[in-house]
Fold this sequence. Notes:
Blueprint: E1 7-17, H1 44-54, E2 61-65, H2 76-92, E3 96-100, H3 106-113, E4 118-120, H4 143-155, E5 160-166, H5 172-189, E6 192-199, H6 218-228, E7 234-236, H7 245-254, E8 258-262, H8 277-284, E9 289-293, H9 307-324
Parallel strand pairs: 1-2, 1-8, 1-9, 2-3, 3-4, 4-5, 5-6, 6-7
The structure holds iron/sulfur cluster (SF4).
Amino acid sequence: xxxxxxxxxxxxxxxxxxxxxxxxxxxxxxxxxxxxxxxxxxxxxxxxxxxxxxxxxxxxxxxxxxxxxxxxxxxxxxxxxxxxxxxxxxxxxxxxxxxxxxxxxxxxxxxxxxxxxxxxxxxxxxxxxxxxxxxxxxxxxxxxxxxxxxxxxxxxxxxxxxxxxxxxxxxxxxxxxxxxxxxxxxxxxxxxxxxxxxxxxxxxxxxxxxxxxxxxxxxxxxxxxxxxxxxxxxxxxxxxxxxxxxxxxxxxxxxxxxxxxxxxxxxxxxxxxxxxxxxxxxxxxxxxxxxxxxxxxxxxxxxxxxxxxxxxxxxxxxxxxxxxx
Length: 325
Ligand code: SF4
């Protein structure tokens, strides 16, 4: 049955650039990391050539997604500078950067604020129980370290994306506790723009031996999350991890309204290719949903940004309003 009225669900036309896969943490569900020293860093020249090709492809967001160099490593400063330079380059070539590079120092975050329209870090789950299991060898996954990132982002007025990873050994109560912590932080700083609910989806590189998160539970989690989170926080789900289209639609009915960055590759879940925009439209339109592009910063947070960033954001808003009609 065709439904005549349409409702909007957003996505970000994005490209993910990985400065390096090397990471000093070893989360057992990871399908991204390489050992320190085993993943060459992308050079600025390589990135420039890549961005030139992307300039004609209607891509707005450059997601800078990096493995982590230890805060006390002699390589940390060079690693941070490479990330900063990649953001600066992307911005100077007309894109809007969004960085997710693990926990940063306050000063690092402050510097990246100048060249990012938003930033992100998954809280995953706040329960310390996971430090005995999947995060036993992942010092960056200390819950208090991650919560502090949300606080610093708020103090620095950085539009921020966070989220939960579901199905890594937590309990149901852990979900609500984590969501409540996000809601509480947002009530103080009003800076969280979206919360990703990411179902654990086993990949070919991970050592964590557990089934995928049951997709039948996802609409229920979204429904409850919608009750816990303030209304100005959008709930995002990754459509490539919700394979059955009936459940994808059920997630939207339950309150999800964003499908995240859609690009050539999901770097975090490389075994799960993104659906193309046309494929998503074919699923959504018959059910009355319209797929609408968005920027990596939500309009109500534009005024958090420097004037230089705001001017670039406005240019993209005009472009998208023409595309949407
Ligand atoms: S999940 Fe992130 S922090 Fe953990 S090992 Fe992988 S890249 Fe590193």
